[in-house]
Amino acid sequence: MITNHSMRDGKRENPRVNLRAYRDGLHLIITPNLPIEDVSNAIYETLAHMNQPLAGVSVQIDITPPALTKENLDSLRVKLEETYNLQVSGIDFPKGALQGGSSTAFSWESNPPLNKKTERSKIVRKTVRSGQTESFPEGNLIIYGNVNPGGEVSAGRDIIVLGSLRGVAHAGMNGRLSSVIVAMNLVPLQLQIGNYITRPIVGQKPQGYPEIARIGPQDVITVEALVTA
Amino acid sequence: MGKVIVVTSGKGGVGKTTSTANLGTALSLLGNMVAIVDADIGLRNLDVVMGLESRVVYTSMDVIDGRCELERALVRDKRVDGLVLLAASQKNSKDDIQPRQMKSICSRLSENYDFVLVDSPAGIENGFRNAAAGAQEGLIVTTPDVSAIRDADRITGLLQHMEIEPLNLVLNRLSPEMVRRGTMVSQKDVLSVLSLDLIGVVPEDKGVIASTNRGIPLVHTKNSEAAQAYMRIAKRLIGHQIPIPEFREKNFFSSLLQRFSRVK
Questions:
Q1: Regarding predicted confidence, which is higher, A229 or A199?
Q2: DSSP character for B246?
Q3: Which of A211, B81, B98, B194 has a Cα-to-Cα distance from A226 of 20 to 30 A?
Q4: Across the interface, which of B124, B153, B192 has its CB nearest the CB of A129?
Q5: pLDDT in tens, B92-143
């Protein structure tokens, strides 16, 4: 029901591991379906080409599903801390991404704040009309109104629309793949989470209940009814 | 001081000029002093729709350049008293005029006229900005199709940014039959996207083209549903509370019924 296109931006980057600096710190973004050896080598290649020493800097690991096992992640964390003297501040992945993960159901715990001090939200108290944009790279974006066709909203973390989302929404614009998009009425032109893009089938009728879009275990953006446990 | 109202839509061909001509005529038929201003410089049309093309001597450009007084440039309507037209120059372009000049013309007109209707050109560039510069209120014209609605939404955002309020919506060319078949966006869906106050719905009417070609605004025609719709919008503009009727498809019985009610 949903077509997905994975898209990488054209920057000169290691294809397997990207080290990116965002406002909340350094992120190490790991491509899925890689053996742990390849990840280690890719990390070495990435870090070896750094001009500045990174010792003592904290990094956040972002991982896309389906991914490494828990043991792999633990050994990766140890390696980063011991070999490169980095401090791993957190590992961020959509729930169900970890192989052997117990549940694929959405829960708010799988989307922990990166850093409670920097977790911020912006509230927009109007309808975002065609040609208008609202962006908040630093955190969550909450819209008290609609996002009309031709309007665009983007956020570093989650996007919540307390109305109809009929335009384009881009959550996790800095690459944070555990970001979600929630709308009371989700009939978008296009959804983006990190570098994942999806467009719903043409002529889809509104469901009449709130829905949530996130990156699911099948490595595509999935849309389902918003049910909080 | 009268009201300056900009008639705009973003998209072309949805009926801005037709609406300006008909609402201007309807408002003056209701006893108001009305000035209609063509802001579509370089592509003037309002004089043609009003049937005043041959009477235009001076344009707003002549007023701005000081070649004539504002009062002399106004063309009196040949059918209704208290209705004047300020034509646009056909020789100039939209960049030859500044928003503050347009604003000055509108505010001078509003001293002597109850309503100043400014017919905006299509688009969101200088032409639109000039047209909206002097306005206190906006009439947004849209047709029930997605591209017109998209553009109306865009223009609404721009007008709100310019703090032009209130903004009212005219839903033009609604065809009840096409809505029923699902090939046209319904009135409810238009309003749910635009979230504007609806001031009137004008049904699709073939008479519009005929009246444009003859240079006689439709409101002069009797028995036209679109003309009646424009009259109702004019009445709502002067503060009458008139409900918006639901347009039904014409079938044999309803037209029969209509004929009877007319006889009565």
A1: A199
A2: P
A3: B194
A4: B153
A5: 999 999 999 999 999 999 999 999 999 999 999 999 999 999 999 999 999 9
Residue of B nearest to A166 (CA): B193
- Predicted confidence at residue A97, as pLDDT, reads 47
The phi and psi torsions of B6 (rounded to 5 degrees) equal -90, 135
- What does the longest C-alpha to C-alpha distance in chain B come to? 60
| pLDDT bracket for residue A83 (50, 70, 90) | confident
Nearest CA-CA distance, residue A130 and chain B, Å: 5
Contact state of B154 with A149 under an 8 Å Cβ cutoff: no
Structural tokens at position A203:
């002529």
ipTM: 0.77
Query: B92, B42 in Cβ contact below 8 A?
Result: yes
Return the percent helix, strand and coil in chain B, to nearest 5. Answer: 45, 15, 40
Q: How many CB pairs under 8 A join A and B?
A: 30
> What values do phi and psi take at A13, rounded to 5?
-140, 155
CB A197 within 8 A of CB A204: no
Chain centre distance of CA B194? 18
Q: Are A160 and A147 in contact (CB under 8 A)?
A: no
Closest CA to A32 of A84, A80, A91, A99: A99
Min distance A186 CA to chain B CA atoms (Å)? 14
Within 8 A of B150 by CB-CB distance, chain A residues are: 130, 149-150
SS3 A89: strand
Distance from CA of B157 to the nearest CA of A (A): 6
- Least CA distance to B124: which residue of chain A? A131
Nearest CB to A148: which of B124, B153, B158?
B153
DSSP, collapsed to helix, strand or coil, labels residue B255 as helix
